[in-house]
Design brief:
Two copies of one chain form a homodimer. Chain A is of the alpha/beta class and 446 residues long. Chain A has a single domain (1-446), classed as Alpha-Beta Complex (Amidase signature (AS) enzymes), CATH 3.90.1300.10. Chain A is 42% helix and 13% strand. Chain A contains 15 helices and eleven strands. In chain A, strands 1-3-2-4-6-5-10-11-9-7-8 form an eleven-stranded mixed β-sheet, with helices on both faces. The first copy, chain A, is globular. The two termini of chain A are 31 Å apart. The A-B interface holds A 239, 312-313, 315-316, 319, 340-350, 353 and B 239, 312-313, 315-316, 319, 340-350, 353.
């Protein structure tokens, strides 16, 4: 195996090679760092990256392996972490000058979990301003004139550009699925409550959800299986129970060919013409396994309920930033916070009360279907770096806390990736990964 | 055993006598109904009571016993239910003309649980208007010129007057502890999340908590053990786990003499002089087992946070009543709802965020003490029926969701009951019952 190619190994292949002693973590991390040196001047995916610190972690893990110490599922595998997720050994600056130099004392729960599984925390990836809309410095690795999407811009771009096999991101609206689609990688946001948000910048308790970027479905399952779990510090995580074998289930053949609901969503007219054509072709390939499904009319209102909840909760989550440093915030974020401060508790609670109603309506859909197929975004990554694109095709699923996955299976006429989003029933995360693997195989075989 | 005296049996003694075949449920219910005929023209504890329906339930349970069917812990024991808790076989009118004639299709979860344990649902007890401040028709059974307290007025008065051995009530501020204190019965509001509120009028998800009235601690434990449990329809209930043996723990001697923190609360100056004297005497009796403890200064602010949360959540919970029937509401409730509608989502969320901070502060107190001793109310039941008295001595514990219990151990100079409140650590409900039994024994022995 050539060291210069190791950076393109999947996390699963790398973990196997490390376990077998075919490569060392130091070699793997060095290959990733070489790739960073090669492309990151252009991509700019990193908010913080100390090569020596990454290599020191790798060497310590290699040492433990040589000593015969027990090895976790990610032993020696480098992972990138969005710069809103706390790390005790690196700054976490949340994409704002207001938090410049911020050094958390502790790892976020999800970072502790990945470290316990043996991961090398490679560095911190660029986020938009406080994980909202104002872009960071990152560019799309497929064409630097295009946005990588946001807010998990650096995580998506670094995985797409081969600088790391996997990365953590977060989604309050469309911040995992959209950048995964624009950068052409797999992105997975599990059911709300699966991954603890303790030690992560809080915008919205109701909507914030962590997710994973990788270059294969197998890798999404591998990382997720380590990342999920109950945490007493995040009371929205699910109570202790047996660990779901994501990797095992994701690798199985579905017992029956899955049934897919093609959902155009109430904002289908916002898609670009070539997105519509691409989905026509895709559903054609799937034949009788796919059937169009029209959401109830209140799905359109869901965008308003989402905005009410997000802006009201952001106003509380970022109250210190607004009151002490409003002049250091972007105009768009200041506008969101000002709208959020004017929302009444009554409007906010009425919007919150819609969520269980929406979920109940959705769960009926899953009586007849295994997953929803729908666009990940209106089209390919928009030109220009002043916006990260629209998250609107993710909003409904985020609001309902449903698991969602980007499949990087298509391409626009400009050569940029075009994503298909697959959405599953709440708590049916492993099955969604299995269905996604089946779907990807159908397309690739065609 | 004389039938005319059966109405004064405790629930535990009645359950034992029923199990042994010494009495029938029909005899017991008939004795309770005789007591109703004797005193209820004066007390007016019932919103709905159909003697024939109560007797029919009793006869059916007697029949099942004769057939040798398995018997629950409350088999044949009559229980009163506050008229905001749904019953499929009786109206539930919530103390407002707006809900006159309301007939729920299903039992509330807690009613199902008591029925499953064999209880006779005797009837529906009077609540104040929508479980808020405007009084119902009930009078204090010790002196009809005085309020019974509220909002669980009928439950407290019916138990105190010997019309039933036990009853269900609810507390959003001080609606279990205060009427229990004014009427001179035991009242217990367990930790938030122990008893499901599915099928109960919702004022405030954060604050609404169900509780039990009885004439002994043994009875509180008996009824609670049947009432508590996880309910998927109330997502604030705790996940499935082994049932707590309330009765068994409550009946044990504490392994060491408990240490009691005497807490005057930041509103001690609102107590009546004889309340202060009574607590001086009480703490004197307890000697070195009690120590005064001063709460942190933010405990005073907790009254404001509670009001913000309660009024904001009531505005959402009662939005239909306000929008369709504001003219049918009392002026005090209309005022609460109008204040609630003006609260911003930001103020509401800031108040909510204080609760875990307060709880963390309180939990340190329990490193050194088993329970908090504090007044249940400013004094004995106020004269007049136009107000149900102040809940302020309960507010802090309700806000923190801590278990609280009224001990009817003292008396005012007017001969009316004067309550002592015992408050425990969250989730330490059974220990609180055990400590309360120990405390009652100290006082009675003295």
């Amino acid at each position: 195996m050539q060291v210069t190619q190791l950076n393109w190994l999947s996390a699963s292949d790398a973990a196997r090679a490390l376990r077998d002693g075919a490569i060392s973590s130091e070699q793997l991390v060095e290959a990733c760092l070489a790739r960073v040196r090669q492309v990151d001047a252009n991509v700019q995916a990193w908010a913080f990256l100390d090569p020596e610190h990454a290599l020191a972690q790798a060497r310590a893990l290699d040492e433990r392996r040589k000593e015969g110490a027990p090895q976790g599922a990610l032993h020696g595998v480098p992972v990138g972490v969005k710069d809103i997720i706390d790390t005790h050994d690196m700054p976490t600056e949340d994409g704002t000058v207001l938090h410049a130099g911020r050094m958390p004392a502790d790892d976020a729960t999800v970072v502790s979990r990945l470290r316990a599984a043996g991961a090398v925390i490679m560095g911190k990836t660029v986020t938009t301003e406080l994980a909202t809309y104002a872009p960071g410095k990152t560019r799309n690795p497929h064409d630097a004139g295009h946005t990588p999407g946001g807010s998990s811009s650096g995580s998506a771009a670094a995985v797409a550009a081969g600088m790391i096999p996997a990365a953590l991101g977060s989604q309050t609206n469309g911040s995992v699925i959209r950048p995964a689609a624009y950068c052409g990688v797999y992105g997975f946001k599990p059911t709300h409550g699966l991954i603890s948000r303790h030690g992560v910048l809080r915008l919205s308790r109701t909507l914030d959800q962590l997710g994973v970027f990788a270059r294969s479905i197998e890798d999404l399952a591998l990382v997720c299986e380590q990342a999920v779990g109950y945490d007493e510090h995040d009371t929205d995580t699910f109570p202790p129970r047996a660990r779901t074998p994501f990797s095992e289930i994701a690798s199985q053949e579905p017992p029956l060919p899955p049934r897919i609901a093609f959902v155009k969503t109430p904002i289908w007219d916002e898609t670009e013409p070539e997105t519509r054509e691409a989905f026509e072709e895709l559903t054609g390939q799937l034949g009788d396994r796919v059937q169009e499904f029209t959401l109830p009319e209140n799905a359109r209102e869901a965008l308003d309920w989402h905005r009410t909840i997000m802006e009201a909760e952001m106003a509380a989550g970022l109250v210190a930033e607004y009151e002490k440093g409003a002049d250091k915030l972007s105009e768009s974020l200041r506008g969101q916070l000002e709208r959020g401060r004017r929302i009444t508790a009554l409007e906010y609670q009425i919007a919150l009360a819609r969520i269980p109603q929406l979920i109940a309506g959705m769960s009926r859909l899953f009586d007849g279907f295994d997953a929803i197929l729908t666009p990940a975004a209106a089209g390919t990554a928009p030109h220009g770096l002043q916006s990260t694109g629209s998250p609107a095709f993710c909003t409904l699923w985020t609001l309902c806390g449903m698991p969602a996955l980007n499949l990087p299976l298509m391409q626009g006429s400009n050569g940029l990736p075009l994503g298909a989003q697959l959405v599953g029933a709440r708590h049916d995360d492993a099955r969604l990964l299995r269905t996604a693997r089946w779907l990807a195989a159908q397309i690739e075989a065609d």
